[in-house]
Design a protein that fits this description.
Elements: E1 2-4, H1 6-15, E2 19-22, H2 26-31, E3 32-34, E4 37-39, H3 47-52, E5 62-65, H4 70-81, E6 87-90, H5 93-99, E7 104-106, H6 113-134, H7 140-156, H8 160-166
Parallel strand pairs: 1-6, 2-4, 2-5, 5-6
Antiparallel strand pairs: 3-7
Helix pairs in contact: 6-7, 6-8
Length: 182
Amino acid sequence: MNTISPQELNQRHQNEACELIDVRTPAEFQEVHATQAVNVPLDRLVPRDYMQARNGNAQTTLYVICKSGTRGGKACEKFQAAGFENVVNVEGGTEAWAAAGLPVVRGKKVMSLERQVRIAAGFLVLVGALLAMFVHPYFAGLSAFVGAGLMFAGITDTCGMAMVLAKMPWNQVSSGAKNCSV
């Protein structure tokens, strides 16, 4: 997978128009994003549809950014699996972009998806343990299920709970943001 530093991409953008998509959730995008980025959430990304919507510019380099680089890498893999090789991931994501002092748009502060997952997982483990102690021992299965899910998320770097939470209304953005649903 090809990568580029935020500084190098910003320099290229000074000389030519560079298409940059941000694959984070709409709420994350609204909080802070590179000025030229357009939001195309990873869970809604259909590479073939997106490339067709580019009006024949499938050969022009597409740059992908996320929070730290992981989701951007997954998006690049989706594009490559669909046959589009001219896709580049921004190293370090939006965090590195902002840390480098490059231009960003700041909006409303939101609770990170990672933090929401920790709260939800902790709550479910606690509820499972309390129900197992006071109602029926079989409720311990709830805590075990959440623990297994967290292990799976750590091993595969794919979190089902995060995918569900990303679709919740508080993680969506109303009108006004540069969103693209393709």
